[in-house]
Amino acid sequence: MKEITLERLPATVEELAAMPQAALTVPEEVAALTVAALARFPENQEDAVRMLDFLRGPRPLNGTVSKRSVPGKRISDAVIFCRIFPRE
Length: 88
What we know:
It is built from 4 helices and no strands. It has helices spanning 13-17, 27-40, 45-56, 64-68.
């Protein structure tokens, strides 16, 4: 298993697309960016969905995210763990 280090979590799809891992050629890097996009969900669902659409390529999400969102429930309730290690 390869360890992936992100300098910071992206807040927008533009920031995500500018990251070196956005080449989407290494499965572990795509997984790390997916977790980063999901981590954005509690703060801004629209930005998170845009980032997930970018990662999915020509197959955007089909709308089930918004249909399954329930007021008062947040995706962070499902416990998403992200670790960011600063470069030394």
